Prior knowledge:
This protein is of the alpha+beta class. It contains 2 helices and 8 strands. It has a 4-stranded mixed beta sheet, with helices on one face. Strands 4-3-6-7 form a 4-stranded antiparallel beta sheet, with no helix packed on it. The protein is globular, with a radius of gyration of 22 Å.
Amino acid sequence: MKARLLLPAAALVAAGAFAQEAEAALAAAGPPAAAFRCGGVGQADQERIRSEAAAHDLMLTFATVSGAYLADIDVEIRSGERVVLQARCEGPLMLVDLPADGSYEVRARGPGGAEQRKTVRIGGTPPARAVFTWPGS
Length: 137
């Protein structure tokens, strides 16, 4: 009789331990990653993205110091040491939805591999904006 009771009890303990391990793994992974959309090639697309910017946490703009827009920019966004977004933006404008309010470091790699870093604060109104400019080519 004792053996019959011990087997289900051991299974329950093992299931509980597995559930705790799964919860710990999810907590260690942190919040979900960011979502993004790029564009802004052409006047109509630029206007559309700008009109949609208020519905997102962050808008990034990539250009030369003379004002010409740039595309194909590698972007990485970090929350502390955790990378929440790593992407290539094929247009000069990028809309980003981040997993939580707070401070983020944005790294953008432009022409010739030159990297710039900016810190943005998410959670206010209007949404955060950052402009990255590089010397013209």
